[in-house]
Design a protein that fits this description.
Elements (H helix, E strand, L loop, with lengths): L3 H4 L10 H6 L6 H8 L1 H9 L10 E6 L2 E6 L2 E2 L1 H5 L11 E6 L5 E5 H17 L8 E5 L4 H13 L2 E4 L6 H11 L3 E5 L2 E3 L2 E3 L1 H12 L5 E5 L15 E3 H6 L10 E2 L3 E7 L7 E6 L1 H14 L7 E4 L6 H13 L3 E5 L10 H9 L3 E4 L1 H10 L2 H4 L8 E5 L5 H11 L6 E4 L33 E4 L5 E2 L2 E7 L9 E2 L3 H8 L6 E9 L5 E6 L3 E4 L2 E4 H8 L5 E11 L3 E10 L7 H14 L8 E4 L13 H8 L15 H8 L1
Parallel strand pairs: 4-17, 6-7, 6-8, 7-14, 8-11, 11-12, 16-17, 16-18, 18-19, 19-20, 30-31
Antiparallel strand pairs: 1-2, 3-13, 4-5, 9-10, 14-15, 15-24, 21-22, 21-23, 23-25, 25-26, 27-28, 29-30
Bound molecules: adenosine-5'-monophosphate-propyl ester.
């Protein structure tokens, strides 16, 4: 089933150490067997690991593409992350937080419970937040962000976390799309020693227009230096408003299918999609996958470096580990501040045992050199994980050998905002590792590689699809059921992931990356259309086309091919202004790496831009057939200018 026998003849196959296997949570194939024998029964058993207020009547109601899991069941996500631990883990550290400036705060499960209850009561009684209301969280990586997420869950408000690197426009779009009533932010956050003025960005977003937003709660994190002003009647200081609130708050019983959160992600149009996740199924998968994939144990110090603004932070920094009663490390800043050894210093001081990060970070560490690592004792590590983009075997081997000391298994986990939790990954003590390959579907998950016509690829390349419903699957796109259908369910009968992948004779999947018009820059999804529509907003731009180019560190980088209006100079200053404009309009993650000015774009005779040709130019590949182009000579010019 896991292909161990056939794997042994493969060249680069790496096994976990015997010590790791002997101590692992799952060291035999029982989970695989249980899931294959009775998939729904398997998921019901995982759901039983949660505390339910009311048991479900039916495990799954599947009316393609609409799934309901644990139908009729009731539970509360914050109860399952906090209250369930109060008897046995009251004094256990839940969160170790380290600020970029070096300060450390710890919260026991009891502390966290108190803080969550205080905020939950505040939201209910002072701001009249009710079940189903949306709350946007636009915050730095401070404990109050995790607390806010859980406080929303406690009272049944739907949280929409917007990554603190997004611009005022991006924030405004997301506040309005979700029709949030309240927003929680901070006066600012630290990033590489600089202050990110979050509250000022919030003010700008509100100035653009957020009619549904009634109140803003502001955490004072930076203090005076941030020059933050609070608008009377609209803005409130976080610690002042929670001060008098009770630290006990009865959790709202939530239907298993009640929404838990919305999280926006880029798609193939200019408008981001609000991916909706519900309560029972999401939490079931979050809890199970954290324990199984990361081999999480009672005494682990678990560090996921993702920001809570992304799905990885939701599932594997907040919900998954806390549902398992883990000690979670949360770090505010960047890996190179004040020095490039910051992560290894953190691992040494806090004795981190599980470390989950992205290939972009791994490639940067590799480039910075081993000296930064050798200054530190990182032998507390026992398992490593990677997520967000394909990892090249060279970076994988470096991670395994230099960071993991050839002793820590590496789990390469493939999943998406839409899948809510890990879909493809080895179980570290069971399946041998192949550098660059995510491995097998998790027990309970059924996947396939398909040909464009929907037929199966048994060995080879094609399009990745998840072929059976799973508990943490997205339940829709907020306010846009049509988009949910057309994006994920039109191409095949089964869920279409938008990724290309290969499957080998052992059933191992290697995910190659997006096949749609979505880029993956440093593990972050950015729609080419989003960047294009921003570029054409710039006064001098007549037309623009955006594609990805390979980037040694970030995996992909953004290239804009731009036609300027006649009165504008195609010089370096205009290029710099354009890049700055995109960063300001969307956020720094969308800043183009390269702008190529051109008098024309490769188009078909009917005027459609041939992106394939631009992609090939950016990737330095053969151009292919240009006979259908209106003016084929433009290709040579673009190649020269690139
Ligand atoms: O292209 C795949 C890539 O990231 C996309 C999902 O992005 P997002 O929704 O932002 O979630 C990222 C974190 C779960 C996927 O469609 N991706 C994610 N993990 C991997 C990956 N590509 C290759 N290998 C992975 N392990």
């Amino acid at each position: 089933m896991t292909g161990i026998d056939t794997l042994l003849h493969e060249e680069r196959v790496i096994q976990a150490t015997e010590t790791f296997k002997d101590n692992a949570n799952y060291s035999d194939e029982s989970l695989y067997i249980e899931a294959k024998t009775d998939r729904l029964g398997f998921w019901a058993n995982r759901a039983k690991d949660l505390q339910w207020v009311k048991n479900w009547d039916q495990v799954l109601d599947w009316q393609r593409p609409n799934a309901k899991w644990f139908v009729g069941g009731q539970l509360n996500a914050s109860t399952n992350c906090l209250d369930v631990h109060l008897e046995t883990r009251k004094n256990k550290t839940a969160i170790i937080w380290e600020g970029e400036l070096g300060e450390v705060k710890t919260y026991t499960y009891e502390d966290l419970h108190h803080q969550v209850c205080k905020l939950a009561n505040t939201l209910k009684t002072q701001f009249n937040i009710q079940k189903g209301d949306r709350i946007t969280l636009y915050m730095p990586m401070i404990p109050e962000l995790a607390i806010s997420v859980l406080a929303c869950a406690r009272i049944g408000a739907i949280h929409s976390v917007v990554f603190g690197g997004f611009s005022a426009d991006s924030l405004q779009n997301r506040i309005q799309d979700s029709e949030s009533k309240l927003l929680i932010t901070a006066d600012g956050g630290y990033r590489r020693g600089k202050i990110v003025p979050l509250k000022q960005i919030v003010d700008e977003a509100i100035a653009v227009g957020c009619p549904t937003l009634k109140s803003v709660i502001v955490v004072s994190h930076i203090g005076e230096e941030s020059n933050t002003t609070l608008l009377k009647g609209r803005d409130f200081d976080y610690h002042t408003v929670i001060k008098e609130s009770s630290d006990s708050c009865a959790p709202e019983p939530m239907d298993s299918e009640d929404p838990l959160f919305i999280l926006y992600t880029s798609g193939t149009t200019g408008k981001p999609k609000g991916i909706v996740h519900t309560t029972g199924g999401y939490l079931t998968h979050a809890k199970y996958s954290t324990k199984a994939v990361f081999d999480l144990k009672e005494d682990d110090i678990y560090w996921c470096t993702a920001d809570i603004g992304w799905i990885t932070g939701h599932t594997y920094l907040v919900y998954g580990p806390l549902a398992n009663g883990a000690t979670v490390l949360m770090y505010e800043g960047t890996p190179d501040y004040p020095d490039k050894n910051r992560f290894w210093d953190i691992i040494e001081r806090h004795k981190v045992s599980i470390f989950y990060t992205a290939p972009t970070a791994i490639r940067a560490f590799m480039k910075w050199g081993d000296d930064h690592i050798n200054q530190h004792d990182i032998s507390s590590l026992r398992l490593l994980g990677t997520v967000g983009e394909p990892i090249n075997p060279e970076a994988w081997m470096w991670y395994y050998e230099v960071i993991g000391g050839s002793r820590c298994p590496v789990v390469d986990t493939w999943w998406q905002t839409e899948t809510g939790g890990i879909m493809l990954s080895n179980l570290p003590a069971i399946n041998p590792m192949k550098p660059g390959s995510a491995g097998l579907p998790l027990p309970g998950i059924e996947a396939k590689v398909l040909n464009p016509d929907g037929s199966d690829v048994t060995v080879g390349g094609g399009l990745l699809s998840i072929t059976e419903p799973w508990p943490s699957m997205l339940r829709g796109v907020w306010g846009d059921p049509g988009r949910f259908n057309s994006t994920y369910w039109k191409k095949f009968d089964t869920y279409y992931a938008g990724d290309g992948a290969t499957i080998d004779p052992d059933g191992y999947y290697m995910v190659l990356g997006r096949v749609d018009d979505v880029l993956n820059v440093a593990g972050h999804r950015i729609g080419t259309m989003e960047v294009e529509s921003t570029l054409v907003e710039f006064p001098g731009v007549a037309e623009a086309a955006v594609v990805g180019m390979p980037d040694e560190i970030k995996g992909q980088a953004i290239v804009g091919f731009v036609i300027l209006k006649e009165s504008f100079e195609p010089n370096d200053q205009t290029k710099a202004e354009l890049c700055e404009f995109v960063a300001k309009k969307i956020g720094a993650i969308a800043r183009p790496k390269k702008i190529v000015f051109t008098p024309d774009l490769p188009k078909t005779r009917s005027g459609k831009i041939m992106r394939r040709i631009l992609k090939n130019i950016a990737e330095g590949k053969e151009i292919g057939d240009t006979t259908t182009l209106a003016s084929p000579e433009i290709v040579t010019l673009l190649q020269e200018r690139f």
